[in-house]
Amino acid sequence: MKLNFFFLLVSVFIINAYYSQNKLFKEVSDSIGIDYIYPGNDFQMAGGGLMVIDVNNDGWEDFFQSGGVFDSKLWINDHGKFFDGTKLYGLESLKGYFIQGAFCADYNNDGYQDFVIANYGIGIGQGDKNYPVILKNIKGKKFKLISLEGVVEKGNYSSACWGDVNMDGYSDLYLCNYVSAMGGIMDSVGTEIGYDPICFENKLLINQKGKTFIESSKDYSVNDIGCGLAAGFSDVDNDGDQDLLLLNDFGEWTLKGNVYYRNNFPESSFSDVTLEKGFSKKMYGMGIGKGDYDQDGDLDYYITNIGRNYLYKNDKGYLIDVAQKKDIDLTYVYEKFLGTSWSGLFFDYEFDGDLDLYISKGNVATLVPETSIKDPNVLLINENGSFIDYSKVSGVDDILSHRGSVIFDYDHDGDLDVFSSVVKLTWSAYEGEDQKLKVYQNLSNTNNFIGIKMIGSKGINRDCFSCRALFDHNNKIMLKEVDGGSGQASQSSRILYFGLGASKKLNKLTTIWPNGIKNVYKDLEGGFIYEVRPNGKIKKRQYER
After folding, report:
1. How far is Cα 230 from Cα 248, in angstroms, rounded to an integer?
2. Over the stretch 368-416, which tens digit does the pLDDT of each residue have?
């Protein structure tokens, strides 16, 4: 044991010495055509969500930047360079909406990705723009705005996620509904020391065969009133349906902590199993990261917070926090100030076959006085099951006020890049800093990879939000799941990537479909993205560069 620890220390020293001269990522937003500033004010200390979407099905993933009360932008990917496609795709209609985040799904199964915006609609002078809206993709050429007025009430919607709750082949939508009114808790001398929020009720919208939605949160027992700030559908207990993890805000002052709802399919209901399964924490819940970091065939969850973060190791549906044991709770910055974490995203930085972790960080207006003003982003590299902090040599560790982040291979160079939203603040601590959206280009592309794009058909939603893939390579396994939204008001790529290291082929892939079908593929050639379907058909797609 001591010998292994010694070799670990030596390897970390050698690697850090090398990367002190060679950063892992390079910030390239200017050189690829992206120049976006997200101005901050009292209403815009959260949000700033990013969404990855292939608008025109050209194989080059685009992205959407949520702009709060300012302009949101759709950025179109033209072979690794971007241009502003907001006007071209008819999204100027979103002007005047207070957009916190955006989340895409092909809700009508027509082959084109649509998206929903989570927007604040009450108490901020937004006129008639008080409801969430669906942006329907018209054959990859433009978007049509469809208001959800009449489906849900006005609210302050902070986030959302997609998933096929009733397994009918159409994607359903869960909306986090935030603060209705905010009061304060005073001490004996009249100093405000805590929050007294009144929260809106969250909403579950059941898809009616791609035509409309029916609000069904009470019927499914997920009408939470806890000031929800993030949510994610995920098959926590590996039973083939999608459960729901919900993060609530305001820490010790909130009415209730985080919630784990177990899907009771084929019954049309969820059960609150929070206490039983170990997910009950009162915290400032910010974002959910999903990944099989310990490679045991189920999904684990990294939960971000003000102060202590949580890494929930999944043990047959029971969630056991091991963040402090792994020394990745990130409670403090500069040893004495509380950190503020937003998006915590699992991804394989160097495609060596295990999952690393990126955490976007940034100060937020709060009554927690111990929080740090400067709070650098964090990159944790997985080395044989231990997470090593590579932040100082990563190239992603600036001290700006980051929010939503996403991960995808925008330039098709065979590695995963990080896009991170930044709130521009006028505080003196940030004077002279370039406070705009950051694109961190991955410089590692030496190892091989394989990408899997699961496409539903015949009773399976086209986005495959209930679909999973099990990668089996060199005596290691890793389960991956198509994500319908997580992080902080954000949604990353739907493509499932797996690192092969120096190998040329993947030993074995098992695709797991919601209808119970499993397909097995062996010796798949690396360096490609494969489209797979429930009938077993597989298509190798040239990775265009």
Report:
1. 7
2. 767 877 899 999 999 988 999 999 999 999 988 899 999 999 999 999 9
Task: Please state the φ and ψ torsions of residue 414, each to the nearest 5 degrees.
Answer: 85, 25
pLDDT band at 22 (very low <50, low <70, confident <90, very high): confident
**Among candidate residues 517, 505, 498, 399, the one with its CA nearest the CA of residue 459:** 517
> How many whole angstroms separate alpha carbon 463 and alpha carbon 107?
8
* Amino acid identity for residue 456 in this structure: G
CA nearest 319: which of 327, 328, 310? Answer: 310
Give the pLDDT band (50/70/90) at residue 123: low
Span 506-537, pLDDT tens digits? 999 999 999 889 999 999 999 999 999 999 99
Is 395 within 8 Å of 417 (Cβ atoms)? no
**Whole-number average pLDDT of the chain:** 90
CA–CA dist 151, 212 (Å, integer): 9
Which pLDDT score, from 0 to 100, does residue 7 have?
47
Q: What is the SS3 assignment for 386-408?
A: EEEECHHHCCCCCCCEEEEEEEE
Q: For residue 362, give both structure tokens.
A: 């940034």
Give which of 448, 460, 300, 317 is closest to 387, Cα–Cα: 300
58 alpha carbon, distance to own chain's centre: 23
Tokens of 2: 């001591």
Residue 465 DSSP class: T
Q: Give me 224's structure tokens.
A: 């939470």
* pLDDT tens per residue across span 301-339: 999 999 999 999 999 999 999 999 999 999 998 888 899
| Listed residue (387, 399, 381) closest to 340, CA to CA | 399
Query: In whole angstroms, what is the distance from residue 83 CA to residue 94 CA?
Result: 18
Higher pLDDT, 226 or 449: 449
Q: In the sheet that 270-272 helps form, which strands lie side by side, from edge to edge? A: 228-234, 243-248, 259-263, 270-272
25-442 placed in CATH 2.130.10.10: yes
Instruction: Report cis status (omega within 30 of 0) of the bond before 266.
Output: yes
Q: 116 near 134, Cβ under 8 Å?
A: yes
Calpha distance 231→481 (Å, rounded): 15
CA nearest 379: which of 440, 436, 301?
440
- The answer to whether 118 and 157 are in contact (CB under 8 A) is yes
Contact predicate 76/87, CB 8 Å:
no
The answer on pLDDT for 461 being more than 70 is yes
C-alpha span between 179 and 246 (Å, rounded): 15
What is residue 466's predicted lDDT score, i.e. its pLDDT?
85
- The domain locations on the chain are 25-442, 452-541
- Give the three-class secondary structure for 516: coil
